[in-house]
Specification:
This protein has one domain. It is 77% helix and 0% strand. The protein is elongated.
Length: 218
């Protein structure tokens, strides 16, 4: 190959390498920016979960007190009405963090997005479920047949809401580790803070037992 041809080939190779390096650099920058955004969203999500914790804990305590009365079907008329009423009141008092509202949560990225959706479902399922259980348990003659016939749906709704809430802790911890853990978050979101939230939203803390013993049509 002539010297001129060699120089052209070398120039083309150098140009290709430069373009490849530029592309890699751009991809790295994009990945870094995406990770930074996901971390910021997880920090905001953790703050929202921390603020919601007292109300959720109050609802869980009331639900656990009333759950044995309804897990296998509605109790006889008059029995357990106080516990069911308290559970209903606590569930309806739950306030969805503004960050978790559907419109705002749509902008969340990474683990924060799924955590917001899970908490939003918990609020909706438990609020509706306990409200309908209370109605069915105290329904008059005109509505008792329909309400009681559909009560397994309401009972399952409450159970599902708490089952989802019980996944929040471990999913928060998994997301924290995936996005770099203490080394990446520093004091903005510490390991101790995440551990406390993971315990508060864990299966032992919030899941209802036993599993519902009734199904629709049974």
């Amino acid at each position: 190959m002539r010297a001129g041809g060699s120089r052209k080939v070398a120039a083309l190779l150098a140009s290709g390498a430069a373009l490849l390096a530029a592309g890699c650099g751009s991809g790295t920058a994009a990945n870094t920016a995406d990770l930074r955004l996901q971390r910021e969203d997880l920090i905001a999500t953790a703050r929202a979960l921390s603020q919601a914790r007292p109300e959720a804990a109050a609802e869980v305590a009331a639900a656990k007190a009333a759950w044995p009365l309804v897990a296998n079907g509605l109790p006889p008329a008059g029995r357990g009405r106080a516990q069911i009423a308290t559970a209903t009141r606590r569930a309806r008092a739950l306030r969805l963090p503004r960050l978790f509202a559907e419109q705002r949560a749509a902008g969340l990225t990474g683990p924060g997005s799924s955590l917001a959706g899970t908490y939003r479902n918990y609020v909706a399922l438990t609020g509706t479920g306990w409200t309908m259980i209370e109605h069915a348990a105290g329904a008059g003659a005109a509505g008792v047949r329909f309400a009681r016939a559909n009560s397994p749906l309401y009972i399952e709704s409450v159970y599902d809401g708490h089952f989802g809430l019980a996944q929040v802790g471990k999913n928060l911890l998994a997301g924290y580790r995936k996005l770099g853990g203490p080394a990446a978050f520093g004091t903005a979101l510490t390991q101790a803070e995440v551990a406390r939230l993971a315990a508060a939203y864990s299966e032992p803390a919030v899941r209802l037992h036993p599993h519902p013993g009734v199904k629709l049509g049974s």
